[in-house]
Amino acid sequence: MSDNPDKISFGTRLRNSFLTGLIICAPLVITSWLIWTFIHWADSWVKPYIPLHYNPEEYLQFAIPGLGLLIAVIFITLIGLLGSNLIGQWVVTFTESVLNRTPLVRPIYKGVKQIFETVLKENSSSYRKVGLIEFPGPGTYAMVFIADEAKGELAARFNEMGQEMVAVFLPPTPVPTAGFLLFVPKDKIIPLDMTPEDAAKLLLSGGLVTPDFKERAEPVA
Hints:
With 221 residues, the chain is an alpha+beta fold.
């Protein structure tokens, strides 16, 4: 067999072409499948509640993918607009007061609402920063999403110990939706410049997809 790197066998070229095609096609197919699945999931939830005489599919005689998702987005936006005026605020306040007085519903509603308010509010910094902590032991580092400083009873207990603790989420690889909530001393967290999206790609790929990095410019003396 020749050692000349320019002479590549037909089998090697065929394998390289297949791998190149796989790298091109697989992300497109998987992304398309995920989007299509989400659209069908949204349609299956919304379409059954659309009155037949308001459903354009009854007149067109064919299915419209994404119709349910579009109606859901419009409906949620209208609810948001109504909730911003006085009458809408009164309705929301009255509904919340009823839910807060219902024994089994109250803890579920309050917990879910608090999560959405914390994650979606514009000035929230929760899970928008990425860092490193020593885990599971000294000299070994794990990537975490930084939530917020400890509050309430936890903050009081940590203050008694003279520690300023920060809540972080430690996701596993390659399924970052599950993980551990840890409280780590603030000075033990190494902040990173990468975005949460880049960190998620790194986790999902098991370290194979590394985000681009530009060295910080040295401050001018």
